[in-house]
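hey m, so remember when u said the tokens were messed up on ur end? i reran from scratch. heres the input so u can diff it against urs
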Amino acid sequence: MLVSCGDRTVGFVYTAGMSDRSDTTHDGSFSAAARRTFYEGHRSLALFMILIVFSAPFAGLYVAGLFGVAIGVVISAAAYVLLPFLWKWIGD
């Protein structure tokens, strides 16, 4: 919340009802705690993600060398973070 004094803005004021950090989603599906809860509740998806996270860099190495390893790491990290959100969006 910004506080104004006449025509000048004083600054940011923390109030008790405000969150400590801004969240892009209101349900917190991108938070680490939400991911952990999701993967603990979906053991088969967790095992699948372990397979993806460890195999994607090797697949990238086989297909495109060191550049493929970098792409594989990025893809596996994105899949790990986005799967709970996509699962919720699809409608578990």
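this time it looks ok to me. The chain has two helices and two strands. if urs says something different then somethings off w ur setup not the seq
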